[in-house]
Amino acid sequence: MRQNAPNARKTYMKETTMASEKVLAHLDAHRDQHVDQLCDFLRIPSISSQSDHDDDSRRAAAFVADELRELGLEVETIELGGLPLVFAQTEIRPDRKTLLFYGHYDVQPVDPLDLWDNPPFEPVIKDGIVYARGASDDKGQVYTHIKALEAYIRTGEELLVNVKFIIEGEEESGGESIYRFTEENPDKLACDAIVVSDTTLYNESIPGICYSLKGLAYMEIRVDGPAKDLHSGSYGGTVKNPGNALAEIVAGLMDADGRCLVPGFYDAVLDLDDEERAGFAELGYTDEILKDETGAPAAFGEKGYTTLERMWARPTCDVNGLVSGYGGEGAKTVLPAKALAKVSMRLVPNQDPDAVAKAFADHVHAIAPAGVTVEVENLHNANPVLVPRKSDMMQAGMRSLEQGFGAKPVFIREGGSIPIVGTFQEYLKSPVLLLGYGLSTDNIHSPNEKFHLDNYWRGIRTSAILMVEAAK
Amino acid sequence: MRQNAPNARKTYMKETTMASEKVLAHLDAHRDQHVDQLCDFLRIPSISSQSDHDDDSRRAAAFVADELRELGLEVETIELGGLPLVFAQTEIRPDRKTLLFYGHYDVQPVDPLDLWDNPPFEPVIKDGIVYARGASDDKGQVYTHIKALEAYIRTGEELLVNVKFIIEGEEESGGESIYRFTEENPDKLACDAIVVSDTTLYNESIPGICYSLKGLAYMEIRVDGPAKDLHSGSYGGTVKNPGNALAEIVAGLMDADGRCLVPGFYDAVLDLDDEERAGFAELGYTDEILKDETGAPAAFGEKGYTTLERMWARPTCDVNGLVSGYGGEGAKTVLPAKALAKVSMRLVPNQDPDAVAKAFADHVHAIAPAGVTVEVENLHNANPVLVPRKSDMMQAGMRSLEQGFGAKPVFIREGGSIPIVGTFQEYLKSPVLLLGYGLSTDNIHSPNEKFHLDNYWRGIRTSAILMVEAAK
Fold first, then answer.
1. Which residues of chain A are within 8 Å of residue B440 when distances are taken between CB atoms?
2. CATH code for the domain in which residue A325 is found
3. Is the N or the C terminus of chain B less surrounded, counting Cβ atoms within 10 Å?
4. Is A250 in Cβ contact with B300 (below 8 Å)?
């Protein structure tokens, strides 16, 4: 988690809840049950990027749909060629504001499996923390909104807002269903605010609302040489080795200071304004904190920017995977037929993922050595997001967080991407509220993913309060 | 296989066998049986570099030991901490010359398994070719000598030489047993010639004796960064990515023309003499032949040398494997905790593998970027080998090949390494006869490894004839 810097604000506010005592008492009384139910959700191995888990992903969709149906919502399971979308809504009364809650029931792959302390789909609770794939990203977070709504339904307390849910199953695999649905059904998703809980608190004692997400251009580079793996003795020195060729290409993506060498890469980057720089600096994030969080031997990156500025507001270019030849135990003297790299570029406002992906492909082809065949594929993209910090809904979100967590929230950015948020902004024209309940140390996308139950319960409470605050 | 160049010699000699008609008739009558028995040997998945196959490797050792014991040889199975050595000898009469036959019962790993047309340990015979892992490297080749000796024992024909076998199980994994045994027991292995069949014919119609093998320095580079895989959005741009770092290191091993950048790498290289260059040129090997053999889009390598010169007499530096992060289907946005490369350098006379390995490690540390931890390990080494072309035993070998294959043999080199040969030269001080029966297209170390049965039978015949020719 982010450690508190000496000067970080720790003002705890007197709690002046706007949600009814009945609703909040219901939440308190059902904490254990809410954890048990979350664990049932986490047991479903809904890995969307691995097609042999498609049945599991469909079970996860049904799990969500069944819960919402049981709460009396009108529920649709929508199939658009990939994994299903679950859309649900309460009775829509035009005199009320409408909140649209978005989340995803799919999860990341689990390898390397041997680094997990417990099987990733057998949740374990230890010291108030639940460990499982999807605990924080995003099952645990999206589920807070369902439990918050449930409290209104079960207590019979009047809902002051209309509530809609759109929960997808292709967030981790770059599927198209949610995009198609949003573009073709903006009326169905029409709302006064889109609430997305798929980001983090600033740290365990300071909540925050995220006002900017990085975008993404995810690329795959495939290098082909000989028709099959060759004996490195028989043919070494006579043909270009695809493994060596791939290394040359990847080495040509970045300079020694961590700046990306793709021509034009930085042209559209929106610089931070002074207020943002000052706000970041006030948080007191240091390289020591980074090293604690990551275990990396040192901080590294572009000169002229603080580590938090690079993390939140500078575009990056990272190898996500390298594969070629033999990677097992011992030695195999093979000259590999092919080599593959997965490379993702995290983009910031106002970079255009399509333009960056094209420039990347052109650059790779330009620097590729002779003697091999090189293909570049753009696996998926996401637009960067920037949300105005001053709006009624942003203020309602800040008040809800402050009451739900009992601490004054701050404005933060996030290096991760939530690709759909840009599309929501474009087609629904409503403010996006990035209310994150995770921690940066929740090991999302890594072994031993986890979610703090305190943050889970506070998150449910925050969502319940928001259903009142947003009505103002 | 090597195609015949227009000017390649195709003079077929009148066969003037020196082995008895009885022995040769026995071989002709048992061709099918010899194939069946070889298939039994090939069914044992003796992958020495994978410890979960150790039991299989021991079964392969027992298979060989049992056969030799049944022929009446004195057999020892020697355990020196790794996989067993099988040593066997006929009755040793001091008035006879002694041939020591060396080979290995272990095989390479089989991945990528999905590129095999049949399961690698279920031999299939099609169009006179047996397909299985180990068919050519080296089970099929070492077995020729056992079958040749068997013909003498079964027919009761007098052996004119003493025969010893030393068959190991760690050739493909760089194990130490054979080295320790050779260094500690030179008297036991004492002989007038060491016969090694683990190389190739020049092509399917021209046999050859190999007079030089490349050496090897096999390296592993391990790059460590964060303590665990990170989310590439959350931490991209803040720490050095081990995948990018590894690519930079590997790219720094070679220049754009395929010359190795390790300082001093070429210092000890013995240049080809004019006779060798002329001999290579006469074979008429072309880049078109190379492209046919490998399926590579083009030839590539050091300027100033023909392709055959690079293949046979220039040192190389090849990636054998790259592993980092996520290599599966689709996208995973991970910043990997570590990255690994396996790199082998094939060395020529008079390069010293230890010195090269040290220079390599120094170079890697010198070019490694900051922000990651880099380890270099020298997994195993082999000395390059050069055998004088003019000796009695070499002439006996040439005569045997000519009669066994019915064609005039040529002198060839080999890009592969047989690490033990250098040690044999050093400790046994006897000439090494590299009598190869494989083809360069036998897919050794690759999917669909194969061995032509015609070459198997001719090989057995050649070995049987050598048991007479060597006695002269």
1. 234
2. 3.30.70.360
3. C
4. no
